[in-house]
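Thread title: Can someone regenerate the structure for this chain?

I was given the following input by a collaborator and told the matching structure tokens would be attached. They weren't. Posting the sequence so someone can regenerate them.
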Amino acid sequence: YHGYNDIEGRWKSKNPHRTEYVWQVIDTVGGSDQHGSHLRKTNEKKKPPPGNMEIIKGSAYGAFSRAFIEFVHTSPIAKELLDWSRDTYSPDEHYWATLNYNTHLHTPGGYKAKSDPANWTARFVNWGESNCYGRIIRGICVFGTVDLPTLFNRRELFANKFHLNADPIAYQCLEELIINKSKLDLPLNDATFYRRMPFLLPS
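Best answer:
Regenerated them for you:
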């Protein structure tokens, strides 16, 4: 991707209650001395995010350039956003996207347009929106062997998720396919699709 990041981000879809209020971790004690915790939203409003940033809804997963990772580790503004996010709900779902889509930060490999990209290739997830032939756990399809034809035709780099104790054959078959493609040095089936990813096109 010539140094660009493939990070999911949505300007239009937002969850303000996740980032505009302080969230607390509440420890709970269940039966048989079982300990757990849950998040609780408080009525305390948070200060605005640092650096005049707009919080962007995204995903915990992405394909990051090396320069972006170095920016995350060394940039003061990236560290400020991380500290600011500590008492938000699920900060991993806005941290990467916020750094990537706020153009005034000049983030390495960042997205330049002010519109929602149509495609991301970092990860494929079946949220139960289409047929799942494995099993659905917490709203996510754990892929099974019958899902393999669908997975073969996906363009994403990773698929989420597999459980070896649920259907190890599905995982092993997909792993074998990837190994065989690597050994045979097969070309991409649709290289044009990747060349036309929105972050590679002029904004």
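The CA atoms of residues 55 and 98 lie 5 Å apart.
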